[in-house]
Amino acid sequence: xxxxxxxxxxVILSEAASLELGCNYSYGGTVNLFWYVQYPGQHxxxxxxxxxxxxxxxxxxxxxxxxxxxxxxxxxRKPSVQWSDTAEYFCAVNENRDDKIIFGKGTRxxxxx
Amino acid sequence: EAQVTQNPRYLITVTGKKLTVTCSxxxxxxxxxxxxxxxxxxLRQIYYSMNVEVTDKGDVPEGYKVSRKEKRNFxxxxxxxxxxxxxxxxxxxxSGTGRYEQYFGPGTRLTVT
Lengths: 113, 113
Fold this sequence. Notes:
Chain A is mainly beta. Chain A contains no helices and twelve strands.
């Protein structure tokens, strides 16, 4: 079955620390990849996406992600986190031949001031 | 302002009492979708619709119905709610699947007692 795995369920970092959140998917075909963020009490919004071209994509608020096809991964990174990055982060995948969108279980990120 | 609206935002009901959660978007999007968000399970797709009169099951459709009579509206219907449907529900819309960003509504917190 199609699946998306986010390895870290809960991450706690201090401000200015570097961040990497893992995301792996199980599809073998062409995929479209997304990271969404949900700030406390708010709805989900798109951080960044990848569907073709340069595998290193940049998103809003200093986030970036790298698509590594051989590893079926799309990890999210930020060099220096801020307290305002406290949120839940979701990786999502759509396989090109399908209309469904599969989300990972999410990673809760807590930044200590 | 481009947005997805949901009503009600909060609902407490009893087992077996039919309810409808409305969803409306003003972006002329063709694709609309319903998700439920549960702690530790992330977002799971309930139903989606590619266009008017076209709907399909997501990963967790049991106990839910949807309809798409107009492009802008995509109501979620619980004919006989049960306590295991207590959850946070999100409606989303996009220009299509694949590489398109989904725009999420503010969420509806449903409690079934």
